[in-house]
Amino acid sequence: MACTLPALPYAFDALEPSIDKLTMEIHHDRHHKAYVDNVNKALDSLASLSAKPIEQLLREINSVPENVRTAVRNNGGGHANHSMFWEIMAKGAGGKPSGPLADDINKTFGDFTTFQGKIKEAALGRFGSGWAWLVLAGGSLKVISTANQDNPLMEGQAPILGLDVWEHAYYLKYQNKRADYVDAWWNVVHWSVVAQRYSEAKAGK
Q1: Strand, helix or coil for residue 140
Q2: pTM for the complete prediction?
Q3: Which stretch of DSSP H or E encloses residue 122?
Q4: From CA 122, how far away is CA 190, in angstroms rounded?
């Protein structure tokens, strides 16, 4: 099988009160599982593609056969996005980054608060479903937004941090108050993991 559903690195209720237990359970066990099942189904008869890491398929999305490209884009993207999303959150996390990542954020955006504002702007400005991202593009940090389950890898950018703004990520607790969800999410961002992603992206990994 091309993809497998990763286990959450914490309990379903670990991120409360920022993200509630039921949302995490449904988000991981139903939504993410569906992406995994659907991308595997699409690649079932394509051994040469199913043997590749999902990140490689997303980088090469325009080379994926047209008859399965949409399924890989939507479901493979959903799998990659969520696999990252679980990892960059943790119980008792939050705060601010440090080290080279913090230095680059301050250099690029002026300060951390301004950076948070850019992420919030991208998250709230995304009409419908999608993601807000911090990416490394051409060696520089940039805040972007993508629709649906598109991943920055599809545009040759390295995702450093991603915020899921699909309604299934927050609606049980926050209803239509996406802004409140975005504000609360900063309390669970696992900056040491984000910093590692930044370091690897800078190194070209």
Answers
A1: strand
A2: 0.94
A3: helix 112-125
A4: 20
